[in-house]
Each structure stands twice: as structure tokens, then as C-alpha cells.
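lol forgot to send this yesterday, sorry. C-alpha cells for the thing we talked abt
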């Protein structure tokens, strides 16, 4: 046997995640980061903590306490992860498949399903990217684990909590990915009171501007939370991420101000985009636009000529249109974006 013959055969079938491009000297509006970054108090506080990086991360309990105050739940409802991306992995490790989700949606669900060799059911959204709970429940009847992303990446649309509740009534594990919660302001968290099979997933990467430090969390029934902790390595959230999360949660005003600026600018960009392209009104910090008759790649290249990096989307199977996803940046970046759009 050759060394490569020992690779699990399903590993050869994995399509790896391809991140938005970061190019020096260009404005990156490709990965739904918050370009305002974290509160200056987070940066100042982290500087003081750097000499302590020789210690293993040990602030999990403190982080959970602070997150439980922010989410108004108990600390035993919170599980931490190395970005919410790792939470997707923990959930898939801990719970039985098959797995189901909507399409198009966040690409990490099918990728982790492939990594763990789980059957994956992809249920297409309506043509306008809205969600039909009856269709989803029918398509996903075999699944034991379901991911519903709301607001949804890459569409920016939301799923009504009443529709999520219909899915929760199946009794299967229903994960609501609320990575963009702070930009929307509505949560399905209260469903946990009645449906212990619901898990809410959140992140510090988006509204709080901490994508580079990796801190995600789940809000779950304590028994499910325990199961998630069992499949996690002992030190997956790092020390600086823990400190940054504690500091960021102390300055919610900063986060709220940057979110509200992003929402105001998003509306202005949506208006401008809608003059030329078909857009999907967004509840997030990004906008999905159908740039037809241009191809996604052509639009991406033309924006690149203007030194703006956006995210071309692959052709969505079963959907018309050529899509690109554009992150709303700082006001300064958004001016550059609007200027570039007028030249494309
Ligand atoms: C819907 C959704 N869930 C999860 C994530 C992963 O976020 P994190 O940076 O916390 O891993 C993203 C990141 O783009 C996302 O869009």
C-alpha cells in the first residue's frame, strides 16, 4: 500500500473551505468581518495580558459567566468553542446524523458533515430565498440534526421564529445559527424553554469584531451542553480570546454603535446596488446581489481593478442569477465601495 492508500476514502471527497481573499493594499469586503474592530478598551486590555500567554487558557468559567449575563441565561447553558465554526464541528461530533440544512446556506455545515462522513440533506429555499417550513420538514424527515441559519449566510434573509418552532416540534436537534444576531436583534433563544432540543449558536467574530481571535459559543439545555463539552479538546479557546471576550462584553456600547453604523451604511449601499442589480434585503452586515448579466467572477475582477475585494458566490444549484456577497465595512471603506460601484 502507498501512504495515501491509508487515507479514509471519504476524506478524498472533501471540498475544503475557501475563505474570502485578503490582499495587501486592498479594501477587503469579503468575509463579513466588522472592520471597525473591537472596542479600543479590548485592545488596551489585551496589551496588558500579553505577558501571561505562557499560561494555559484558564478563563472559561469567567467567560461563560459574562456571556450568560449578556444572553440572560445560566452559565450551565453556555458552551465555548474556537469560533462558532468549531461549534458546528462539536455538534456534528456529539449528535447522530443524518444532517439537514437549507440551501444556499453556510458552507461549513456540509463540509463538517463530509469530514465526519455523515449523510447530508440539502433542502432548497424558495426562489426568493425565503424558508418554507413544510417543505423543509418533508425534505429533512430522515435527519436527526438540523442547521437553520438565521439571518442566513449568504442570503442575508431571516427565518421567522414561528417557522423555527414548527421545525423544533419534530423533536430532532435543531441548531439555530445566529452568527449575525446583533445585526438583526431577534433571537429564537426563548424556544429553549419549551424545546430542549433547540441549540442556539453565536460568535464574537461578527458584531464584536473579534474574528481573528476565534470565540464562538452555544446556548443549550444543560444536558446537551455537557455532551458538547465532552467532545471538545481541553484548551480549544485561547487565552487572549477569553480575555478579549470578557473585555468586549464590558463595552457593549461600542459594539452597539458600530452595529448601528453598519446598518445605516448597509441601507445606503443596498439602495445604490438596487439601481443596477437585484438585491436581497439583508438583516446582516453583508448584502447579496445578483449581478447578472455580468458573471460573479467578472464583477469580482472589475471590483478588484478598483482595489475592492468582494466574495463571488458559486452558481446556486437550481437558482437563477449570478451572485456576489459584499460585506459592509467602515464608513470610509463604504465610500470607496460606492465609488468603485459607480465605475463598474
Ligand atoms: C452563519 C455563520 N456561522 C458561523 C460562522 C463562523 O464564524 P466564526 O468566525 O465564529 O467561526 C460564520 C462565519 O462567516 C457564519 O457566516
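and heres what i got for the seq, position by position
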Amino acid at each position: 500500500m502507498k501512504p495515501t492508500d491509508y487515507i479514509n476514502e471519504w476524506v478524498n471527497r472533501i471540498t475544503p473551505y475557501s475563505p474570502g481573499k485578503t490582499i495587501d493594499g486592498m479594501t477587503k469586503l469579503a468575509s463579513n468581518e466588522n472592520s471597525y474592530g473591537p472596542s479600543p478598551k479590548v485592545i488596551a486590555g489585551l496589551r496588558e495580558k500579553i505577558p501571561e500567554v505562557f499560561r494555559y487558557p484558564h478563563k472559561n468559567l469567567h467567560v461563560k459567566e459574562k456571556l450568560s449575563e449578556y444572553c440572560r441565561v445560566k452559565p450551565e447553558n453556555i458552551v465555548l468553542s474556537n469560533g462558532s465554526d468549531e461549534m458546528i464541528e462539536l455538534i456534528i461530533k456529539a449528535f447522530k446524523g443524518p444532517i439537514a440544512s437549507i440551501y444556499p446556506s453556510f458552507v461549513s455545515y456540509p463540509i463538517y458533515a463530509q469530514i465526519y462522513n455523515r449523510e447530508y440533506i440539502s433542502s432548497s429555499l424558495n426562489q426568493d430565498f425565503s424558508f418554507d417550513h413544510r417543505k423543509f420538514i418533508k425534505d429533512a424527515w430522515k435527519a436527526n440534526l438540523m442547521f437553520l441559519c438565521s439571518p442566513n449566510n449568504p442570503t442575508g434573509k431571516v427565518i421567522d421564529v414561528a417557522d423555527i418552532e414548527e421545525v423544533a416540534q419534530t423533536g430532532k436537534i435543531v441548531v439555530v445559527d445566529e452568527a449575525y444576531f446583533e445585526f438583526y436583534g431577534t433571537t429564537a433563544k426563548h424556544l429553549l424553554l419549551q424545546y430542549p432540543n433547540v441549540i442556539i449558536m453565536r460568535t464574537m467574530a461578527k458584531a464584536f469584531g473579534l474574528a481573528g481571535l476565534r470565540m464562538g459559543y452555544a446556548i443549550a439545555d444543560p444536558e446537551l451542553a455537557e455532551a458538547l463539552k465532552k467532545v471538545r479538546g481541553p484548551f480549544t479557546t485561547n487565552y487572549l480570546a477569553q480575555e478579549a471576550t470578557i473585555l468586549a462584553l464590558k463595552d457593549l456600547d461600542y459594539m452597539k454603535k458600530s452595529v448601528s453604523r453598519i446598518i445605516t451604511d448597509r441601507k445606503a449601499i443596498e439602495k445604490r446596488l438596487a439601481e443596477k442589480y437585484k438585491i436581497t434585503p439583508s438583516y446582516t452586515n453583508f448584502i447579496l446581489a445578483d449581478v447578472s448579466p455580468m458573471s460573479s467572477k467578472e464583477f469580482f475582477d472589475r471590483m478588484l481593478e478598483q482595489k475592492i475585494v468582494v466574495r463571488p458566490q458559486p452558481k446556486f444549484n437550481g437558482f437563477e442569477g449570478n451572485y456576489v456577497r459584499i460585506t459592509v465595512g467602515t464608513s470610509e471603506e463604504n465610500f470607496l465601495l460606492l465609488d468603485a460601484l459607480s465605475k463598474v
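The chain has a mean pLDDT of 96. anyway ping me if u want another try
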